[in-house]
């Protein structure tokens, strides 16, 4: 009788755990067609839409969905040296979806949400234990923005969306008499310890607009932007992951956005004025020398990616940046992928080129292609760029 009761208790616990996390493991596998070409390896996955990916030393994790419609609801894994895509995790409810996949050697993490946003959380999945170990609820009062994994911790920007600023235009509406509420407000930088399930605030930001609602990381630092009070000059800020020191670098610009670290002492961002009287540009900033130089006069950098180790990847040009005086570009490689909605994807600190492309045949059947150029090589970047 005791054995039957124990078995019943175990079954109940399994059901409760599955309902708690709203998800389940999936063991579906798909064969991948592998082609070794002149300068890259191509993996083709028919019928699967791949949105984003996370790479570590063992392989790659992908956020996927079957077919061309619907939301992304599956996490798939491709181990190095194998030509199989395994679905390791799938949302169990039809109206629950997955986004913002991140990862490192120990964990993968993602945002999970429902259609009506009545359910939203940040999941942490242990690669060693092959299961979800943490579930962090996201509410209107606690929005988790731009999470970054670092060892056994996650660092994110937290904002209370019920306390957004109201101010007179013309930032969004173009009319100085119109009150604007566009998601701007104060925010905190939060460090969350996965092992202890504890979090602490490490910095406070006075003004964060939608273009700054993220953080980015290089090898040893977390980077973010504080636009300070509306109309004042903005600041670039960094949080040293080793010492815990917060550094602030006041800039001569009112509006900064889309920060992307080049390395531990240099970042890229767009800048302009809050009233829109000056055109937005993209510049590099060296925190050691306090030097700022314009990289491009176009601010359309929203598709640009970075690897935190010198790589900056725009849609039409790729850069390998070592310092202000050592900047190299490659336009030919970028041009090979623009027709297919290029998404460069790499785990932070990964010196590799991965691309995710989608192709359609005459009957509109889709094939996702993972293109691996291997280790990033200096000889790929031979055209030197001199900034004014």
Explain how this protein is built.
With about 400 residues, this protein is mainly beta. The chain is about 5% helix and about 50% strand. It contains 2 helices and 34 strands. Strands 1, 2, 5, 6, 7 and 8 form a 6-stranded antiparallel sheet that branches. The chain has a 5-stranded antiparallel sheet with strand order 3-4-33-32-31, with no helix packed on it. Strand 19 and strand 20 (about 220-225) form a beta hairpin. The longest helix has 20 residues, at about 1-20. The radius of gyration is 22 Å and the shape is globular. The chain starts with a helix and ends with a strand.
Features:
five-stranded antiparallel β-sheet; disordered N terminus; mainly beta; six-stranded antiparallel β-sheet; 6% helix; 2 helices; 388 residues
């Amino acid at each position: 009788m005791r054995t039957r009761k124990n078995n019943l208790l175990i079954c109940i616990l399994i059901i409760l755990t599955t309902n708690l996390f709203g998800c389940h493991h999936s063991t579906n596998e798909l064969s991948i067609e592998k082609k070794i070409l002149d300068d890259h390896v191509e993996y083709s996955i028919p019928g699967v839409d791949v949105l984003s990916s996370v790479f570590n030393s063992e392989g790659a994790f992908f956020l996927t969905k079957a077919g061309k419609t619907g939301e992304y609801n599956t996490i798939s894994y491709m181990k190095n040296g194998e030509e199989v895509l395994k679905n390791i995790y799938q949302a169990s409810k039809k109206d629950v979806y997955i986004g913002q996949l991140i990862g490192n050697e120990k964990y993968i993490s993602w945002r999970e949400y429902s259609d009506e946003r009545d359910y939203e959380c940040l999941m942490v999945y242990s690669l060693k234990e092959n299961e979800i170990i943490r579930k962090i609820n996201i509410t209107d009062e606690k929005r988790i923005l731009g999470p970054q994994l670092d060892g056994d911790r996650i660092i994110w920007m937290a904002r209370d969306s019920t306390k957004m600023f109201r101010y007179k235009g013309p930032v969004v509406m173009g009319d100085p008499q119109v009150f604007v509420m566009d998601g701007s407000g104060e925010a905190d930088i939060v460090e969350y310890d996965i092992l202890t399930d504890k979090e602490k605030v490490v910095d406070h930001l006075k003004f964060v607009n939608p273009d700054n609602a993220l953080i980015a990381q290089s090898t040893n630092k977390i980077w973010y932007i504080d636009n300070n009070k509306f109309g004042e000059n903005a600041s670039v800020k960094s949080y040293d992951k080793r010492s815990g020191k917060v550094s602030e670098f006041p800039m001569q610009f009112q509006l900064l956005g889309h920060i992307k670290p080049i390395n531990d002492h240099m970042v890229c961002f767009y800048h302009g004025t809050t009233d829109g009287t000056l055109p937005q540009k993209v510049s590099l900033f060296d925190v050691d020398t306090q030097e700022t130089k314009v990289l491009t006069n176009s601010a359309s950098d929203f598709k640009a990616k970075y690897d935190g180790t010198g790589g900056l990847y725009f849609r039409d040009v790729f850069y390998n940046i070592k310092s202000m005086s050592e900047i190299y570009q490659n336009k030919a490689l970028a041009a090979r992928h623009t027709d297919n909605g290029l998404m460069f994807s790499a785990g932070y600190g990964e010196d590799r080129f991965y691309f995710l492309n989608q192709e359609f045949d005459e009957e509109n059947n889709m094939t996702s292609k993972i293109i691996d150029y291997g280790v990033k090589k200096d000889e790929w970047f031979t055209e030197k760029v001199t900034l004014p």
